[in-house]
């Protein structure tokens, strides 16, 4: 913290108008957040003039980094034509066609303004289609801020029974919400199956993120995903894949990688090319709950800015840039970064690991095997070591999420990866010296 910091001055002003100076919990930082001035490619510059490699890329959304010229050109063209209307535009058809072409299980889709809304609409669609009230979700998995999606996002060890239970995340969560959410352990197919079967007549859907960030960013086992698919079919519930983040794992998203087809899939982040977006898509018969052509739909859904042509055009440009070669290159950079960080942990004799897949990476300051939310939750000494590590990165020109998440971008170079590995090596040295 520097007394002359422009960020600090901005934060002091912010505290007058925003609660705690903040309007987005996820970007809060102590003693004050770093305010960003601009970004270009793999870099960001803060208001104090410091340059860093951006390894969080707006929490995984900016897969092409910042101010990509092709995306900017697409947006500029749309700006001249108008930004949003009370009528549909061709852009929404173009993006829907593109996504339906990439994800086999998605035959029809609907756009929203955020991943939160996409998950909300998917859950509501499942309820409307099945006529059942309950949703099953994984303990510790984040799916945005719909009440039902937030249940058991961060239960403390004091609440850990043998089976997960429905624990409120936010104060004021109604009991009825908790009653309608069944919480499953991650990567435990037998327990998940047993808990789902206990609600077989009332469960509308099982929601799963195949590599849930907050539950450790470790991939679901193939057995786990297969068990969820099978038990959903057995009881007539829908399987919803939350691909708001995992869609950046491959050209067709996560489903081909796990060899599964979901009934509904939620999207967000990268499909908007840096503009607000979300989408839900899936089986044509399920998506028909939204169809207004025969009168009032079973599930009406609007949204003043849903499918606005700026987000649509930016998303189309971003996805067109993401060819197979782009995913291969991102995954190779991710593998090299994981290997480099893991080698640094070994060299310094510090207990830690870099997990994840493709362009997504998370650092845990523990040697214990991470398989779910409970094994991922840092013990107090690990949380302290993680804070030291993250500050070490920040001070060496690397910006990542405070809880150890990194998401790579296509403008990153091999030299950028070398820089991040070098910074991580030195930051792990800080951890070694701090104990
Ligand atoms: N689902 C997942 C898996 C997410 O990671 C997020 C956001 N990080 C959301 C849903 C919610 O998306 P949004 O922030 O766009 O509302």
Q: Which secondary structure elements does this structure contain, and how are they paired or packed?
A:
Elements: H1 6-17, E1 36-40, E2 43-46, E3 51-54, H2 69-81, H3 90-102, E4 108-112, H4 115-130, E5 134-138, H5 147-150, H6 175-179, E6 181-184, H7 189-197, E7 203-208, H8 222-235, E8 238-242, H9 255-258, E9 264-268, E10 278-282, H10 284-287, H11 309-321, H12 324-348, E11 353-357, E12 360-364, H13 373-376, H14 380-394, E13 398-399, E14 405-407, H15 414-433
Parallel strand pairs: 3-13, 5-6, 5-7, 7-8, 8-9
Antiparallel strand pairs: 1-2, 2-3, 4-10, 9-10, 11-12, 12-14
Helix pairs in contact: 2-11, 3-11, 7-8, 12-15, 14-15
Residues 59, 114-116, 119, 142-144, 209, 213, 242, 244-245, 268, 278 line the site of 4'-deoxy-4'-aminopyridoxal-5'-phosphate (PMP).
Keywords: Aminotransferase, Isomerase, Porphyrin biosynthesis, Pyridoxal phosphate, Transferase
GO molecular function, one term: glutamate-1-semialdehyde 2,1-aminomutase activity
Protein name: Glutamate-1-semialdehyde 2,1-aminomutase
Summarize the structure in words:
The protein is an alpha/beta fold. The protein folds into two domains: 34-63 and 324-433, Alpha-Beta Complex (Aspartate Aminotransferase, domain 1); 69-321, Type I PLP-dependent aspartate aminotransferase-like (Major domain) (Aspartate Aminotransferase, domain 2). 39% of the residues lie in helices and 14% in strands. The chain has 15 helices and 14 strands. The protein has helices at residues 6-17, 69-81, 90-102, 115-130, 147-150, 175-179, 189-197, 222-235, 255-258, 284-287, 309-321, 324-348, 373-376, 380-394, 414-433, and strands spanning 36-40, 43-46, 51-54, 108-112, 134-138, 181-184, 203-208, 238-242, 264-268, 278-282, 353-357, 360-364, 398-399, 405-407. The strands form three sheets. A seven-stranded mixed sheet has the order 4-10-9-8-7-5-6, with helices on both faces. A four-stranded mixed sheet has the order 1-2-3-13. Strands 11-12-14 form a three-stranded antiparallel sheet, covered by helices on one side. Strand 11 (353-357) and strand 12 form a beta hairpin. Helix 2 (69-81) packs antiparallel against helix 11 (309-321), helix 3 (90-102) packs parallel to helix 11 and helix 7 (189-197) packs parallel to helix 8. The longest helix is centred in the C-terminal third of the chain and has 25 residues, at 324-348. The protein is globular. The model has no long low-confidence stretch (mean pLDDT 97). 4'-deoxy-4'-aminopyridoxal-5'-phosphate is lined by residues 59, 114-116, 119, 142-144, 209, 213, 242, 244-245, 268, 278.
């Amino acid at each position: 913290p520097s007394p002359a910091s422009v960020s600090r001055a901005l934060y002091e002003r912010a505290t007058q108008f925003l609660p705690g100076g903040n309007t987005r919990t996820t970007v809060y930082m102590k003693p004050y957040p770093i305010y960003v001035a601009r970004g270009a490619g793999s870099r960001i510059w803060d208001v104090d003039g410091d340059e860093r490699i951006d390894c969080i890329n707006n929490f995984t959304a900016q897969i092409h980094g910042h101010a990509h010229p092709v995306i900017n050109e697409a947006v500029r063209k749309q700006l001249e034509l108008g930004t949003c209307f009370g009528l549909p535009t061709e852009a929404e058809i173009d993006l829907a066609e593109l996504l339906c072409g990439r994800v086999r299980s998605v035959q029809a889709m609907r756009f929203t303004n955020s991943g939160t809304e996409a998950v909300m609409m998917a859950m509501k669609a499942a309820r409307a289609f099945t006529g059942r009230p309950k949703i099953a979700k994984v303990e510790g998995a984040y799916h945005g801020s719909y009440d039902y999606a937030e249940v058991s996002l961060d239960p403390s060890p004091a609440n850990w029974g043998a089976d997960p239970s429905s624990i409120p995340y936010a104060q004021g969560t109604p009991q009825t919400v908790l009653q309608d959410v069944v919480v499953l352990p991650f990567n435990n197919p037998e327990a998940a199956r047993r808990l789902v079967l206990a609600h077989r007549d009332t469960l509308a859907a099982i929601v799963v993120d195949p590599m849930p960030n907050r539950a450790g960013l470790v991939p679901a086992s193939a057995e786990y995903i297969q068990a969820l698919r099978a038990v959903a079919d057995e009881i007539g519930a829908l399987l919803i894949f939350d691909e708001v983040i995992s869609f950046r794992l491959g050209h067709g998203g996560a489903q081909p990688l796990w060899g599964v087809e979901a009934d509904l899939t939620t999207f967000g982040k990268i499909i908007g090319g840096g503009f607000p977006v979300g989408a839900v898509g899936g089986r044509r018969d399920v998506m028909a709950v939204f169809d207004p052509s025969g009168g009032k739909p079973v599930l009406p859904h609007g949204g003043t800015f849903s499918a606005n042509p700026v987000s649509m055009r930016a998303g189309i440009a971003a996805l067109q840039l993401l060819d197979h070669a782009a995913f291969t290159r991102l995954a190779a950079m991710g593998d090299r970064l994981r290997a480099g960080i893991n080698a640094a942990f070994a060299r310094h004799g510090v207990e830690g690991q870099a997990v994840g897949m493709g362009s997504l990476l998370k650092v845990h300051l523990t040697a214990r095997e991470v398989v779910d939310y409970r094994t991922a939750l840092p013990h107090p000494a690990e949380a302290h070591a993680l804070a030291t590590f993250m500050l070490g990165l920040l001070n060496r020109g690397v910006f990542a999420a405070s809880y150890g998440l990194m998401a790579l971008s296509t403008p990153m170079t091999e030299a950028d990866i070398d820089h991040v590995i070098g910074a991580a090596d030195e930051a792990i040295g800080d951890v070694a010296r701090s104990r």
